[in-house]
């Protein structure tokens, strides 16, 4: 039987293992305001009511829209709330995701995060690598992390993380600065990132999978529901397939921190409740054989 620890350390902080990914609170395509701003506000209010104390956001969500909603609804922020953002990308006027990894761009995005979240310091900032695709970044990772360490020395951020990082990226980064968390695409139906996860285990680094439900971009939750092994474990526990996918992640590494994304209070409540599902050894053995489900490249 897998035991579920409800909290885990994230650098020098402790957070509940089920957090909240705020990306779904922006408009369609993560661009512009939400279709129903009051519904988005209700989700954020429920996040803190449920005791969630780890929120993942980014200046590029909207852009600015999601950060501004978070500040509007949640200030004054609860003392134990950890807010994480990402730098390295921007949106052009059409909404396309473009790279913004030069030192002055990293600084500008961080300053914009501080302004829109109305914070003096951001708890955790991920260096998001490879935004927009298009091959290797002309700015060396060492220079990108150099800018983040300067911002940390200036007191503008607390912890540094890496996102969409390879094993080599993480090894390079660890020679430069402590890395509190890695945020990469990973889930029960997309396990290609196991080598990075193993390196995180080795170093005790928190691992924060994005697309923990397979992503809105590719209808991830429906693919989970259609997967027969997941569906049978879900039926046995009388829970949903999405909850099984989250419980499986929790059982996979004690410093796995979840940030499922939702624009729905009902889904939020369901996702938080997944923290009390204890998968047994038979479940875990069966779930080992789940086939690869389609995952977005993003
Ligand atoms: N570092 C990066 O590059 C990166 C990239 C992508 C995402 N992220 C972060 O990771 C977070 C999670 O990723 P994500 O939001 O893209 O994908 P996700 O969590 O895998 O899936 C979100 C999708 O699942 C649905 N959903 C949520 N809970 C559900 C439930 N209990 N039952 C059925 N459907 C459910 C949501 O729809 P409803 O709104 O209808 O609930 C939405 O369509 C984001 O919010 C963001 O903070 C980071």
TrEMBL record:
GO terms for cellular component: cytoplasm. It comes from the Bacteria. Pfam families: Aldo_ket_red. The keyword Oxidoreductase applies. GO terms for molecular function: oxidoreductase activity. The keyword Oxidoreductase applies. Residues 17-290 form the NADP-dependent oxidoreductase domain. InterPro entries: AKR, Aldo-Keto_reductase, NAD(P)_OxRdtase_dom_sf, NADP_OxRdtase_dom. Keywords: Oxidoreductase. PANTHER family: AFLATOXIN B1 ALDEHYDE REDUCTASE, ALDO-KETO REDUCTASE YAKC [NADP(+)]. This is Oxidoreductase.
């Amino acid at each position: 039987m897998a035991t579920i620890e409800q909290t885990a350390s994230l650098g020098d902080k402790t957070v509940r293992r089920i957090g909240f990914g705020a990306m779904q609170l922006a408009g369609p395509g993560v661009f512009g305001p939400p279709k129903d701003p009051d519904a988005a506000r209700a989700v954020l209010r429920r996040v803190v009511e449920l005791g969630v104390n780890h929120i993942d956001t980014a200046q590029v969500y909207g852009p600015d829209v999601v950060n501004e909603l978070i500040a509007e609804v949640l200030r004054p922020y609860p003392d134990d709330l950890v807010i994480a953002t990402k730098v390295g990308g921007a949106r052009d006027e059409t909404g396309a995701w473009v790279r913004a990894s030069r030192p002055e761009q990293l600084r500008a995005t961080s300053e914009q995060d501080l302004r829109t979240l109305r914070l003096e310091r951001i708890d955790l900032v991920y260096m998001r690598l490879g935004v927009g695709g298009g091959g290797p970044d002309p700015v060396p990772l060492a220079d990108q992390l150099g800018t983040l360490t300067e911002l940390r020395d200036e007191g503008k951020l607390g912890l540094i993380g890496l996102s969409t990082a390879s094993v080599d990226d993480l090894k390079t980064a660890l020679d430069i600065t402590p890395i509190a968390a890695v945020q990469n695409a990973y889930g029960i139906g997309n396990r290609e990132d196991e080598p990075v996860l193993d390196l995180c285990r080795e170093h005790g680094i928190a691992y924060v999978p994005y697309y923990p439900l397979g992503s809105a971009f590719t209808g991830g939750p429906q693919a989970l529901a259609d997967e027969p092994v997941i569906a049978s474990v879900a039926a046995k526990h009388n829970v949903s397939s999405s909850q099984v996918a989250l419980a499986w992640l929790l059982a996979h590494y004690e410093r796995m921190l979840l940030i499922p994304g939702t624009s729905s209070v009902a889904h939020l409540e369901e996702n938080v409740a997944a923290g009390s599902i204890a998968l047994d050894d038979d479940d875990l053995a069966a779930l080992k054989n789940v086939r690869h489900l389609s995952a977005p490249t993003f």
